[in-house]
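A student in our group prepared the protein record below, which I am reviewing. Here is the record exactly as it was handed to me.
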Amino acid sequence: MQRIAILYDACNAVLSTFDLDEVLNQILAIARDYFRLRNGSILLLDDATRELKVRSYFGPRDSGTRHTIPFGQGITGTAARLKRPVYVPDVEKDARYIPGVAGTKSELAIPLMAQDKVVGVLDFQIDETNSFEEETIDLLTLFAAQASIGIQNAKLYSLVQRRAAQLEALNAIAKQTTVEKDVRELLQEFCQQIPHSFPARHVAVFLRDADGNLVLRAQHGTLTGKLEEDELLAGAGRCGYTTSAGGKLQYGPIECPSPCFAGAQSEVCLPLVSFGLNLGMMVCVSDEINAFPPNDVQVLESVADILATAVQNTQFVDRVRQLAYLDGLTGIFNRRYFESRLIEEITRASRYGGMVSMLMIDIDHFKNVNDEFGHMSGDEVLRQVSSVFMRQLRKVDVVCRYGGEEFAIILPATQLPSAAAVATKLLRAVEAHQFPEVPRSITISIGVSEFPTNGRTRDLLVQAADDALYAAKQSGRNRVECASGTASVVSEQ
């Protein structure tokens, strides 16, 4: 009757839940209640490390049951290797015993099997010698067989649930690629979403720059040894593509000789490849050893493929958008870009209490240049004036062709006096420049305005600069005029 009762309760424990921890706790509860044992544990086998790790136990909290045992070592490891129960009535007389629970006199280890494969060990350590009778060992062995089914079912169910969650995440990630986004915004959303469905504590995306270097563009996670955004990955070649003897590129997970992130215990480095182009790398990091099982890596490869395609599409859209903002003749930004960028700079300056200035520029007597030397020479003058501006200004400054022979320049974080000084430098540089197609000096007139002094909106700021430009031309040209009304003659004629 006892055997039937144990099997009945064991079957109920197996079928009542698919939560692995709950199954383990119920198995140990049955063993404790029926056999009146004070210490017991279930160790599950980690296939990657070939170690038996305590997953659940009962007994005193300070009993020392939470430990790891290498496969084949100790009483527990030996039972796993032999695939049969190992009973030691007196542990002091058995050299295989590894001290665990304080006061242990005898130990019984029963392997948990699923299709002739060891999945774990049911282990009991008792504070008396000769504590188990043969019939009890048989009953516990029979019980362990039922427990093995429950454990395997729970693990399979957990795997199915995990895979379903990953496929759902994969679908959600794929949907993101259909929405037009900025590259960095897209990458950041990818990095934030992956840890929800994969065992990654930290996710980073590196893209290759014009020189082929891997540069960090986005990251998300809790790793303390993280890199800073836009930081170049030192020794980036270690995380490039692996190459076969024939020289063909092998697209797949990369085993890096050293980790990309300090403090990483395991990493998966996945190349971002789209239509044969090497775009960069996605790195998934964990602070646990062997955190990424092969099945997870396969799904992450699909994530990397989707990301690579999304990055390429986004970069293509950015290039198309940039072309729409460029002036075909001079190669600098056009009026459309100027209008949108000026609004951005005004909004930023307004939000943070800063300033922004702008220059409105006109080439003096440009019609005469076209009439005297031809439109081809006039076009070359426009190109060379644009080039002079680009050489004289900061990278943050925005040079635009406003229309015809007019140019507009945005000077972020610049006050009116500094903007006037910049205008003076540009005026002198153009006057000193030698134009091969035009054998005489070319001069410009410049109007300067400042936010918020001369206007709090785009239209008001442009109008103020335009009025100042008109005043400069009316006053004789080849000069700078500020919207405040103060003229500055900067070139002697």
Summary: Residues 9 and 30 are 7 Å apart (CA to CA). Confidence is low (pLDDT under 50) at residues 236-255, 485-493. The first strand starts at residue 40 and ends at 46.
